[in-house]
Design goal:
The chain has about 325 residues and is mostly helical. The chain is built from 14 helices and no strands. The radius of gyration is 19 Å and the shape is globular.
Length: about 325
């Protein structure tokens, strides 16, 4: 096992321990499951935007980022098609097929991926910035475009162009998207470094970034629940194979074809191996597309990730 693979293993296990601690705090009544809503707002409205803005501002985007973004985008969209085809071949019902597609296509790169990249590549500050670019453009944008559309179609609650307009407005006005744009713009402007104001702002953003791992672990721990898996094994196995096995393999394969650098290849494999995005069940619930099934699949991914993610990363890198 390489040094990076070992560091990834240690990071994933450490992160899982933090999730378990948060879960035990919920069991003991120190925190409540509904508190996850507040922590989620804190993460998406402040911590993640601050992290993204700081990383993109201090690490300018280069042309070398385009190929990894393309690989990540293709990985998710191809997985979307494969999961639909398998759903048809195995004769899953309409809503379950939609839930499978949502859960199997795009991983939890922000909630779980960023903290792991941050510590797994601790000696390389540019790795997190590159991971953010790959994630936000290759995962974040398509998940907000494709997953709601899939949930609407297979859930049967599509209300026409108004729904699409609201989704577009919510995404393009979200703090996360705004932070991506501002970070990219500032990174290419001649902002004077070393001034008290600029240094203070950067230090504040860096402090907020430090809360990313803890807040993410708390959210997962509070949301974690255990349900019976009876009758869901086919869906679970298919979703794990597509999301956490096929996607890392495809990312590794496509990286070779496009001559992606060794470090970007490692980042791609790691992001591709992430468990299902938590946003998937949110979209499924919003558009009545087997929300309980989507939630069960997503948390099964999270439960096995401490074993699967390091193993897959070591296998393909």
């Amino acid at each position: 096992m390489s040094a990076v693979s070992l560091h990834v293993t240690e990071t994933v296990i450490a992160f899982t321990m933090m999730v378990i601690i948060a879960y035990l705090m919920k069991i003991r009544g120190m925190l409540k499951q509904e508190d996850s809503i507040l922590f989620a707002k804190l993460l998406t409205q402040a911590i993640l935007p601050a992290t993204i803005f700081y990383q993109l501002w201090t690490n300018p985007l280069s042309g070398e980022s385009l190929a990894p973004v393309l690989v990540m985008f293709l990985s998710g969209t191809i997985s979307l098609a494969i999961s639909w085809l398998i759903g048809v071949l195995l004769k899953f019902d309409r809503q379950s097929t939609g839930a499978l597609m949502i859960v199997s296509s795009f991983g939890s790169s922000a909630l779980i991926g960023y903290p792991i990249i941050q510590y797994a590549f601790a000696n390389n500050p540019q790795a997190l910035a590159q991971g953010i670019i790959i994630s936000e453009l290759g995962v974040g944008l398509p998940i907000f475009i494709f997953c709601p559309a899939v949930a609407m179609y297979f859930g049967g609650t599509f209300k026409g162009i108004e729904d699409m307009r609201k989704l577009a407005k919510d995404y393009f006005l979200s703090p996360i998207f705004v932070s991506v744009v501002l970070g990219l713009v500032l990174s290419h402007l001649d902002v004077p470094a070393g001034t008290p104001l600029v240094d203070t702002i950067k230090e504040a953003l860096k402090m907020m970034q430090g809360a990313l791992v803890v807040i993410s672990a708390v959210i997962l721990g509070l949301q974690l629940s255990f349900q019976t898996m009876k009758g869901f094994w086919k869906l679970i196995i298919v979703s794990i194979m597509i999301q956490m096995l096929f996607q890392p393999w495809f990312s590794d394969f496509a990286s070779g074809l496009l001559s992606v650098s060794a470090e970007d290849r490692q980042i791609l494999v790691l992001i591709s191996a992430m468990p299902a995005a938590i946003l998937g069940p949110v979209f499924a619930a919003r558009y009545d597309c087997a929300a309980k099934t989507a939630t069960l699949l997503a948390f099964t991914h999270i439960a096995i990730s401490p074993v699967v993610v390091p193993a897959v990363f070591a296998l393909f890198t």
